[in-house]
Amino acid sequence: MILAQVTDTHIRLPGRLAYGRVDTAAALARAVAALNVLHPQPDRVLLTGDLVDFGRADEYAHLKSILSLLRAPYLLLPGNHDERGQLRAAFPEHEYLGTEGFIQYAMALGPLRLVALDTVIPMRGDGELCEWRLAWLDETLAAEPGMPTLVMMHHPPFATGIGHMDKIGLAGSERFAEVIARHPQVERIICGHLHRPIQCRVANTVASTCPAPCHQVALDLRVDAPSAFVLEPPGYQLHHWIEGTGLVTHTAVLGDYEGPYPFYDKDGRLID
Q1: 41 in Cβ contact with 118 (< 8 Å)
Q2: pTM of this prediction?
Q3: Which of 155, 169, 231, 260 is 20 to 30 A away from residue 124, measured at CA?
């Protein structure tokens, strides 16, 4: 089982650049092209929020047109830039999105169970896990205690040290960790929001964030770090379930690079 994670695509209206500089649609198209040539193909592509930039219907239509080129099926989750109603209206065939309220769902993906958790507060950059959402998570995890589980959410449940991003972090993280601690089958918690690959222990498991296919948040660990992005190499992640090992995560960089080159010559000797 291979699950690709793509996050924080921030699609704008056709022809519009994010922050006057970043062509997020072209960035997502490059990510789609890279995923389409992977062997083996991902079993699912998980999009962990901030799918568009302003929650507009035309932005979701643009997003959908780009995602239509994906060979692998995909699953959607909102982030703080998304609008639940417009997301549902644009993807009516994705019935797991529901018709109202929070967008939360659980499903089996081969040997893994996926639990998607909504952290969005409408019209705000920070996230929250209220008592209702935490209770839903607790009950959902309790329903399948013997199945290895991947929890996906937009806001990470830990502080990152990047000051301006921690100011729009996740309320309810401590209670979330208490819930996760009761369910040792949780293999990993995968998140977006940070536009960087970051890992942290949460309860008895590991939580991680994924780089974006477009711009990355500047790696600035000052408490008063200014809100800024950089055009570092974009990327995505592959979460590979290996029997007897568990979930192994690879961070991939998007772009064209030389190689692959062999280590050994035709006689099996290390090339000198």
Answers
A1: no
A2: 0.96
A3: 231
Inside any domain, residue 213? yes
Whether 116 and 75 have beta carbons less than 8 Å apart is answered as yes
CA distance 101 to 89: 14
Q: Phi-psi category of 244—alpha, beta or left, where left has phi over 0 and alpha has psi -120 to 50?
A: left
Structure tokens at 59: 């932005």
Contact 80, 127 (CB under 8 A): yes
Cβ(103)–Cβ(85) below 8 Å = no
Query: Per the domain annotation, does 10 fall within a domain?
Result: yes
pLDDT per residue as tens, the chain (272 positions): 999 999 999 999 999 999 999 999 999 999 999 999 999 999 999 999 999 999 999 999 999 999 999 999 999 999 999 999 999 999 999 999 999 999 999 999 999 999 999 999 999 999 999 999 999 999 999 999 999 999 999 999 999 999 999 999 999 999 999 999 999 999 999 999 999 999 999 999 999 999 999 999 999 998 888 999 999 999 999 999 999 999 999 999 999 999 999 999 999 999 99
Q: Count up the domains in the chain and report the number.
A: 1
Distances (CA, A) of 209 to 41, 46, 48, 168, 191: 22, 13, 10, 15, 5
Q: Is residue 261 part of a domain?
A: no
Residue 145, domain extent: 2-253
Q: Which CATH number do you get for residue 247?
A: 3.60.21.10
Within a domain: 272: no
C-alpha distances in Å from residue 244, one per residue of 30, 98, 148, 149, 241: 34, 35, 12, 15, 9
Q: Nearest CA to 188 among 224, 232, 156, 231?
A: 156
Could you tell me whether strands 170-171 and 44-48 are parallel, antiparallel, or unpaired per DSSP bridges?
A: unpaired
